[in-house]
Amino acid sequence: MSIDWPPHPLHPAQDKRGYVLNVYTEKAYRRRGLAHELMRLADIAFSERNLQYAVLHSTATGRPLYEKLGWGTTTEMAKVLTGSRSKRT
Fold this sequence. Notes:
Layout: E1 2-4, E2 16-20, H1 34-48, E3 54-56, H2 63-68
Parallel strand pairs: 2-3
Antiparallel strand pairs: 1-2
């Protein structure tokens, strides 16, 4: 998918990013090239949308595939937010 993203010092003229979400292969079908093909198609879709930077969150299991395809590790961190006040009564 394509998502809005503020420009970054490394990408000052780009306000969109490619985003890969929920790539998963059932255990019985792994090691057949399915995820590799999905990622190849994602690269084509990003290129067709003129996206020059993409992100994804990887599990330890998926990391070797992404690294093989040229993806690099970032320093992103995450936090679960609790106590949301979005729903008021």
